Amino acid sequence: MARIVVVSKRIASAALAPLVREPFGDMVKFVVDLDRRIVALGGQLHSDAEAVLIDEGSRQDALWGGNYLPGLGPTECIQYTSLINIRPARGNRTMSVEDASIRERIRDLIFALVGEGEPIE
Amino acid sequence: MSQHAELSIDRWKQFGVDQQILMIANEMHRGLSAMRPERFPSLKLGYERVFSLVDLTVEAQSNRGLRRELLRWRDVIAELYLREDSDRATHALALRVLLQMTPEAAKQVTLLGL
């Protein structure tokens, strides 16, 4: 199973690179916990990263999934899309994070802990 | 309003895991009768109820392996939910897989002809 790491501080570029390289080559899947301000990075399925965070005490309704693509700059490096985001009970009926304020919080957390779309060295 | 709108995590925890799985399966089984195009809105509402019950079960369960399998299974339901038509074969297979998550629920597979 692809490696999943949980970060609460900015991840070094050298640590991020292998997570991007495998398994997708140009992106890494992420699941954020907006309450605890931590991010699970890696894995083939967002649901696996979601499970890791729940194992570590996260509440499911604080979790949102997406993809981070280094090298695309701050406006295009984050895709707010994941099957785990489908939460009709919370009013989110698509894979995309529909609430702009939640997308903003996700962006701020990814920028702080992962990157702002700069290339990986 | 969903019939499960008032179902709390405390109430859900009073059920054993077998019962939790079987109640999710009940929603899925009901969905098998909503496969015709004119009933697709009902099918989607059923999937919404399934999401709610799965999420309650994930929250209630301390078994990490079961949680992981349920969350992966939830992805399959999410893909069914996003479709613009029904997929009876995948839905039935998902129901079978769900029932096989516990030995007690698995007894229903043969009884339901899955």
Protein architecture, described:
The complex is a heterodimer of chains A (121) and B (114). Chain A has 121 residues and is α+β, with helices and mostly antiparallel strands. Helix content of chain A is 27%, strand content 19%. Chain B is an all-alpha fold. In chain B, helix 2 packs antiparallel against helix 5, helix 3 packs antiparallel against helix 4 and helix 4 packs antiparallel against helix 5. Chain B contains six helices and no strands. At the A-B interface, helix 2 of A face helix 3 and helix 4 of B.
Roughly what percent helix of chain A? Answer: 25-40%
As a whole number of angstroms, the C-alpha radius of gyration of chain B is 13 Å
The residue-averaged pLDDT of chain A reads: 96
Number of strands of chain B: 0
Order of SSEs of chain B:
HHHHHH
Give unreliable regions of chain B as ranges: none
Cα distance, first to last residue of chain B? 30 Å
Question: From the structure provided, what is the oligomeric state, counting identical versus distinct chains?
Answer: heterodimer
Beta percentage of chain A is 15-25%
Structural class of chain A: alpha+beta
User: Which structural class should the secondary elements of chain B be placed in?
Assistant: mainly alpha
**Helix run count of chain B:** 6
Q: What global shape of chain B is seen?
A: globular
Beta-strand fraction estimate of chain B: under 5%
Q: N-to-C terminal Cα separation of chain A, in Å?
A: 25 Å
Biggest sheet overview of chain B: none
Provide mean pLDDT of chain B, rounded.
92
> Could you tell me the radius of gyration of chain A in angstroms?
13 Å
Q: What is the number of helical segments of chain A per DSSP (H or I, 4+ residues)?
A: 3
